[in-house]
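Go through this one:
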Amino acid sequence: MSQLPILIAQQNKLFQAEGFDAEVIQIRTALALPALMSGELDFTTSAETTIRAAISGMPLKAIGFIGVRSSLVLVSNPRINSVAALKGGKIAVSSLRTTTDFVARDILRHYGLNPDKDIVTFPLGSEANKIAAVKSGAVDAAIVTLPSDSIAEEQGLKKLVFAGDFIEGLQSGLATSVKKINENPARVQRMARVFVRSLEFTRSRRGDAVDFIIKQWQLSRRVAENSYDLMIKTFSPDGEAPERLVRILVDEVRRTQKIEREIALSDVVDFSFVREARNPSK
């Protein structure tokens, strides 16, 4: 659901309004970034991961952000009553050293645990796999996306923590290649207009968005409304990310990858297209 505005843009023909015959596809991030480089993909919503790749030297840039707070949820076996009770346990994540893994560790730190010593994270892929592992007792808890938290609750699991209540961090958004920016800035600008309008549409038209969520994920209205209200809390107010959060990510990646060279924020993000979309120059 972190890509909700993009899906709503597709549903409401916002891409067509800017002349795009857009195909929105699901693809693993590990495949999406090379596809951007080769030109097989024009854009990706994996903006945070794109920045990580750009820091490592790939000529890619994030140009907008949907989420600037975590939209992930920690769900657990019903016998677990607190995060502290997970000490010595196992937490299911989608993949190691990706957003779900990082957020699991951030949650543990917030509650005074040491994620390197007190828990083990297991990469289990899909939401269904993670929920099934908790139900079977193979793991004690899992990091899931909205609305999988409500689905997990309906299957008897316990919602322990909504990470967005206290974890800031870059999430999904819009990213592309430096080559695309340099060679076809007009196309990038048109996509930025779709992106900004999709955020505005999703935020301002709650009823339409909830109806879309119900249809897209086959949810009850109560679950859809709850998921929407939580997701909206994580959205960027203007399609950008605070400079502070970008710098935190850059410094973290430099530290963990032992990158000594200085990296300017302009090397990894370019919000000029989103700004122009919000306030078109005369």
Observations:
- Strands lie at 60-65, 73-76, 89-93, 119-123, 141-144, 158-162, 173-177.
- The longest helix spans residues 185-204.
